[in-house]
Amino acid sequence: MTKKLPSRRSDCPIARALDFVGDKWTLLVLRDIIMARRRYFQELLAGNEGIASNILANRLKLLEAARMITRRRDPAQARRVIYEPTEKALDLLPVMIELIRWGLKHDPNATAPAHFARRLAEDRDGFIADMRALHQRGI
Asked: Please, which residues have CB within 8 angstroms of residue 33's CB and are 6 or more apart in sequence?
């Protein structure tokens, strides 16, 4: 079953981007796939935010329909599916990094691992390049 892509509100680039990633869960699912390197449904389900399994399944289908993730069978265990980001999803890394930086700056309760926050502060572009390289090599 192919999931239908979201309808378009307008031709504004921000509105069109938000049609894909502007709901409560989609960027968090992408964050976990890209930054936390979660590859399996159960790993994504176990995230800190407590996403429901039906919502996660829906977002994964939408992301796949939008060509932001791919899914393939795990060669080590054929019953499991591996989710991986596409270049289109990896192109969101700078946006995600800036959202993290904004959240850390403006919300005193927002947290990130110290090494992560330090790396973003010291070498934002290097961090983005490293994340891309990890996914492009399939590590």
From this structure: 39, 44, 69, 83, 84, 85, 89
Looking at residues 75-94, what average pLDDT do you find? 95
Name every residue whose Cβ is closer than 8 Å to that of residue 128 and which is 6 or more positions away in sequence.
93, 94, 97
Residue type, 132: R
Of 117, 124, 82, 87, the C-alpha closest to 103 is 117
Q: Residue 139 and residue 124: Cα distance in Å, rounded?
A: 21
72 and 84 Cβ atoms separated by less than 8 Å:
yes
- What pTM does this model have? 0.87
The CATH code belonging to domain 1-86 is 1.10.10.10
DSSP string, 80-102: EEEEEE-HHHHTTHHHHHHHHHH
For 67-83, what is each residue's pLDDT tens digit?
Answer: 999 999 999 999 999 99
